[in-house]
Amino acid sequence: MEVLEKRSIDFNRTGFSDEELVNIYTKLVRPRLIEERMLILLRQGKITKWFSGWGQEGVSVGTTYAMNRDEYILPMHRNLGVFTSRDIPLRKLFAQFQGKLSGFTKGRDRSFHFGTQEYNLVGMISHLGPQLGIADGIALASKIKKEKKATLVFTGDGGASEGDFHESLNVASVWDLPVIFAVENNCWGLSTPSVEQFKCKQFIDKGIGYGMEAVQVNGNNILEVITAVRKITAEIRENPKPVLLELMTFRMRGHEEASGTKYYPEGLQDEWVKFDPISNFELFLKEEGILTDELTTTIRESIKAEIVDEFEIAYQEEAVPVNMETELCDIYAPFTQEVITPNSDNKTEKRFIDAIQDGLRQSLEKYSELVIMGQDIAEYGGAFKVTEGFVDQFGKERIRNTPICESAIVGAGLGLSIAGMKAIVEMQFADFVTCGFNQIVNNLAKLHWRWGEKADVVIRMPTGAGSAAGPFHSQSNEAWFFHTPGLKIVYPSSVEDAKGLLNAAIEDPNPVMFFEHKNLYRSLKGEISDDYYTVEIGKAKTVRSGDDVTIITYGMGVHWATEIVAKHPEISAEIVDLRTLLPLDTEAIYAAVRKTGKVIVLHEDCMTGGIGGELVALINENCFNDLDAPVKRVASIDTPVPFDAHLEQQFLPKGRFEIALLEMVKY
Ligand SMILES: Cc1ncc(C[n+]2csc(CCOP(=O)(O)OP(=O)(O)O)c2C)c(N)n1
Q1: Which of 508, 500, 491 is CA-nearest to residue 605?
Q2: pLDDT digits (tens, 9 = 90+) for 420-462
Q3: What is the 3-state secondary structure (H, E, C) of 336-367?
Q4: Which of 198, 357, 463, 516 has the most CB atoms lying inside 10 A of its own CB?
Q5: Ligand 1 pocket, 358 CB below 6 A?
Q6: DSSP H helices in 367-427
Q7: Helix boundaries (H) for 452-581
Q8: Please, are residues 249 and 220 in contact by the beta-carbon 8 Å criterion?
Q9: Which of 383, 390, 555, 372 is nearest to 457 (CA)?
Q10: DSSP secondary-structure letter at 198?
Q11: Closest by Cα among 460, 282, 238, 286 to 356
Q12: 456-482 as b/e, with b when 16 or more CB fall inside 10 Å?
């Protein structure tokens, strides 16, 4: 640790007792001593990667010290001091760093990539920015529940260049969410200095653009950090609103230990040594007569001994057991669906869209903690009017119009879930999910497997072509998500299933992509129960029984197949509606294949990389001996969805399906 002769930071100790100052010092020095040890362990190969927060401890420790213990903090990769200041036992932290079972992720994710409800911490994913939207959701939950709690989320100055920063600040500002956006401005992002990262002079200059109060503090002055965060939290707990807090500091070591610091201009690090947060504070406390050399040594030696002992315990722990079943099982949060049957025989004929509306309304009545978010979904009722009238019944807190910020809103959905609520996010069109893609495939999907937390979010996806809406309002993009372990994909084709499966998706604590074909909204009708009911997720349905050929399909494909088969009474076709694409009902698929030995897989999505390819592979691997013909895929052509109705009809597979069906029967 740097020893300074002269102090370069002025501290104001007003409001801090001697005892408290010693306590703060003890917390401040702790992460530094761990880091000193880490560097040795790194050289010994006992730790792999390490992102250093050396010189930035004032930020991590000061902010955490000022927050209440039951308030959430969302730290980043240099915030060891957040974790230590929440008093996580060191053996557990070390076990996490070493990938041991008693860490937080069963060896599945590294360093600070974990969260823990026990300590009200939500760690990052590598992508940096997505943290910020989650904080919005947590803050929204506490605002709705009137808990008078603040949430603090970190970003680096580099990570703040990501779109997530803009979206999350914007949402928090529009919704008056009690979040502190703590920009840890250490002047560098890997080798990139601030001047190559952003053009404004300082982050607080951005506050006005977001309509947000912005405060700048010296992040190396722990008392200034604590005082500022205390002042902000006292205010925003009472009057919820976000604050941009810029903490000026410097990254003393390289980006990570292996990457070095050659890009730093000569002398820069030496200059910052003078502003070391710990040495300066220590000098100050000695000047004040609060710390003596003896007390300093006692504090340090006791922490060092604890580090050595605790590290050894974690080090001695055996390597994480390798068990295939556990790996696969942990993909989803444990949940056994109990299928709910209607209370009465009362039925009404409804359109597909009404069934979805019915399901949403009854789920909102059932779960007071359920919130729906989407663009124009409140008074306007949504682009397709699915949520029409909901504001009157459930209010604007639960039926939330959102800014056009898909990533922050999906993140906010996850934040709501982490804070014990349930969320539905309506994509205005399934096509726009690309803007929230990262949150879905990297945060929602991986969360439970990484640190055992559920992601109780349903993403509603108005999908599909057929209305001459062109390449950005017509796509079938379920295959993007099919490839992502941890998600469930539900895709109803009937009115009855639309309601029952939607209710089931909302019940399920796992992230569900719920596809609703737009062209079925108003064209499809059916009699369904007026009561709340659910349909089992993960179960395919035989729509039509037959012996000549099996058609495996879902969504609009079910209707195309039904229509074409009806034109050919001479063909006895079995039609299977998958209904759930993830997890797949493989048993039902294999049974239907074995029944006829001839199979067509039909879907609206493009051919290449579509779900059909996976189905064919599974059928070949598991039913080869039962096949009487090569399995045939029929799908849309491999182009974007064209606008002109004639081109669109050529694009879609319906016409080609009829030909394939006749050929298959003849084979
Ligand atoms: C989306 C994304 N792009 C790039 C990276 C690689 N990366 C990791 S940290 C980092 C620098 C981040 O800088 P900053 O946010 O200022 O935080 P600091 O490391 O300085 O604390 C980069 C480029 C990443 N993890 N995620």
Answers
A1: 491
A2: 999 999 999 999 999 999 999 999 999 999 999 999 999 999 9
A3: CCCCCCCCCCCEEEEEHHHHHHHHHHHHHHHC
A4: 463
A5: no
A6: 390-394, 406-418
A7: 478-482, 495-507, 518-521, 556-567
A8: yes
A9: 372
A10: -
A11: 460
A12: bbbbbbbbbbbebbbeebbbbbbbbbb
Q: State whether the beta carbon of 157 lies less than 6 angstroms from ligand 1.
A: yes
Counting beta carbons within 10 angstroms of the beta carbon of residue 215, is it exposed (0 to 12), middle (13 to 18) or buried (19 or more)?
Answer: middle
Q: For residue range 468-499, list pLDDT tens digits in order.
A: 999 999 999 999 999 999 999 999 999 999 99
Q: Which two tokens stand for residue 396?
A: 């604007």
- Please give the pLDDT value at position 259: 82
Record the tokens describing residue 233, joined without a space: 């939290």
Beta strands in 209-273 (DSSP E): 213-218, 243-248
Examine the residue annotation and report whether 113 is marked as an active-site residue of this protein. Answer: no
Residue 46: what pLDDT? 84
Q: How confident is the model at residue 230 (pLDDT cuts 50, 70, 90)?
A: very high
**Residue 47 pLDDT > 90:** no
Burial of 340 (0-12, 13-18, 19+ CB in 10 A): middle
For the Cβ of 193 lying below 6 angstroms from any atom of ligand 1, the answer is no
The long-range contacts involving 627-632, CB below 8 angstroms and separated by at least 24 positions, are: 627/593, 627/597, 627/598, 627/599, 628/596, 628/597, 628/598, 628/667, 629/597, 629/598, 629/599, 629/664, 629/667, 631/599, 631/600, 631/601, 632/599, 632/600, 632/601, 632/660, 632/663, 632/664
Kindly report whether the peptide bond that precedes residue 242 is cis, defined as omega within 30 degrees of 0. no
Bridging pattern class, strands 541-544 and 573-577: antiparallel
Q: Does the beta carbon of 190 sit less than 6 angstroms from any atom of ligand 1?
A: yes
What does the block give as tokens for 281?
């504070």
Write the residue with the smallest CA distance to atom 19 of ligand 1.
Answer: 189
pTM, rounded to two decimals: 0.98
Contact 147, 400 (CB under 8 A): no
Kindly report the CA angle at 496 between 495 and 502, in degrees rounded to 5? 90
Give the mean model confidence (pLDDT) for residues 318-343.
97
Distance from Cα 198 to the centre of ligand 1, integer Å: 14
Q: Which atom of ligand 1 is nearest to the CA of 255?
A: 19
Residue 435 in contact with residue 407, Cβ under 8 Å?
A: yes
Residue 111 CA to residue 543 CA, distance in Å, equals: 50
Nearest ligand 1 atom to the CA of 159 is: 15
What pLDDT shows up at residue 653? 98
Burial class (CB in 10 A: 0-12, 13-18, 19+), 10: exposed
Q: How do 73-74 and 151-156 pair as beta strands? A: parallel
Cβ(556)–Cβ(524) below 8 Å? no
30: its two tokens? 């702790």
CB 607 within 8 A of CB 652: no
The number of the ligand 1 atom at minimal distance from the alpha carbon of 186 is: 20
Q: Which two tokens stand for residue 646?
A: 């004639």
Q: Whose alpha carbon is nearest atom 7 of ligand 1?
A: 190
> Of how many residues is the chain composed?
667
Q: Find out whether the beta carbon of 130 lies less than 6 Å from any atom of ligand 1.
A: no
**Contact indicator for 598, 550 with CB cutoff of 8 Å:** yes
As a whole number of angstroms, the distance between CA 662 and CA 352 comes to: 31
Q: 604, exposed or middle or buried, with CB in 10 Å at 0-12, 13-18, 19+?
A: buried
The finding on whether 588 has its CB within 6 A of some atom of ligand 1 is no
Q: How far is CA 469 from the centre of its chain?
A: 30
